[in-house]
Specification:
alpha/beta; Quinone Oxidoreductase, Chain A, domain 1; Rossmann fold; 2 domains; 6-stranded parallel beta sheet; binds zinc ion
Length: 342
């Protein structure tokens, strides 16, 4: 006797910027697991390799959905809406026990990268990755992930070594740069000056709308941009561009006690020429990777109190049948966050 698992269609990232469809069996919940029906999943720049090279995994790591089945030993009721933390952390290692769940030593996987993610019709997760969001619409709830989570984490990482941040320089006004800008305003107050650069006018306009001081890098250097806005030397620069020359430029521009936070991966940094300055001015180099699970709980009230401000970051909402178009739009650069809804 054989049992036939029911198959459903899901997007298939073929490679070469093409998304087709394939079928997958509906996953079955095991002990400690939840089965979700994803309702919204935001596109992310980190999906570029999947978009270009293809993958057999169903991507989507900024997912919000509803629990439709709960495995043995779980406590989340069926019907609960919430978001999914990307990293499948163990919850038991030294780092997890201290709350550093983005630095788990026995990580089981990454949702949407090596586990099927939120663009599919179903997503199977360990219960500890699920964060309930109450009545918040699920498209908006995705803002808790890479936008507020990653953005806020970068600000808090800078705050570990700098207690009176007045000016921030952000190279890169893509979604992560916009998230850092927004969280700088929400966590440090509206008076903090945030100078933000990019080469895409659409993104700079959005950044300006959100209280940033825009600099088009095609028209001026970062130094000229700071001067143009009457900004003093930045206390913090948060790299969301991932270019070595830009990091070097940021390091050079920092004030005494300045902090360079790198959120972007890729390329490097050379402090050789600046080394003497680096020591004499007591500068700090900090990295920031995603965020810890407990920050979801800290950021939810901030989102609830600032919904119309934060919602500006979501510029496009498309159905899952339009996913090809959604990716073309997003990687065309003229968008904020693009969200797939289903
Ligand atoms: Zn992302
Ligand atoms: Zn762990």
């Amino acid at each position: 006797m054989s049992t036939q698992l029911q198959e459903v269609t899901v997007p298939h990232f073929i490679g070469n910027r093409q998304i087709g469809v394939t079928t997958q069996p509906i996953p079955q919940v095991g002990p400690g697991q939840l089965l979700l029906k994803p309702k919204a999943n935001a596109l992310c720049g980190s999906e570029r390799p999947q978009w270009i090279n293809g993958t057999d995994i169903t991507p989507g790591h900024e997912a919000a959905g509803i629990v439709i089945a709960a495995g043995e030993g779980t406590t989340t009721p069926v019907g609960t809406p919430g978001v999914v933390f990307l990293m499948d952390f163990c919850g038991e290692c030294r780092n997890c026990r201290q709350g550093f769940t983005n630095q788990c030593l026995h990580k089981r996987g990454d949702m949407g990268f090596n586990r099927n993610g939120g663009y599919g019709q179903y997503e199977l997760i360990h219960e500890n990755l699920f964060f309930p969001v109450g009545d918040l619409p699920l498209t908006e709830a995705t803002l808790l992930l890479d936008i507020m989570g990653t953005g806020g984490h970068a600000i808090k990482r800078a705050g570990l070594v700098h207690s009176d941040i007045r000016t921030i320089l952000i190279p890169g006004a893509g979604p992560i740069g916009l998230g850092v800008l927004a969280m700088a305003k929400l966590l440090l107050g509206n008076d903090v000056k945030v100078v933000i650069s990019d080469v895409v006018p659409y993104r700079l306009k959005l950044a300006e709308q959100m209280g940033g001081l825009p600099v088009n890098s095609l028209d001026m250097t970062l130094a000229e941009g700071l001067k143009h806005h009457g900004a003093e030397a930045p206390d913090v620069s948060i790299d969301c561009a991932g270019k070595a020359v830009v990091r070097d430029e940021c390091l050079d521009l920092l004030a005494h006690r300045g902090v360079l936070v790198s959120v972007a991966h890729g390329e490097g940094l050379s402090i050789n020429n600046l080394y003497s300055d680096f020591v004499a001015r007591e500068m700090t180099l900090v990295s920031s990777e995603y965020f810890a699970y407990h920050e979801l709980e800290e950021n939810l009230p901030l989102l609830l109190a600032n919904r119309s401000y934060m919602d500006q970051i979501i510029t496009h909402r498309l159905g899952v049948d339009e996913i090809q178009h959604a990716f073309e739009l997003f990687f065309g650069g003229e968008t904020g966050k693009v969200v797939i809804e289903q």
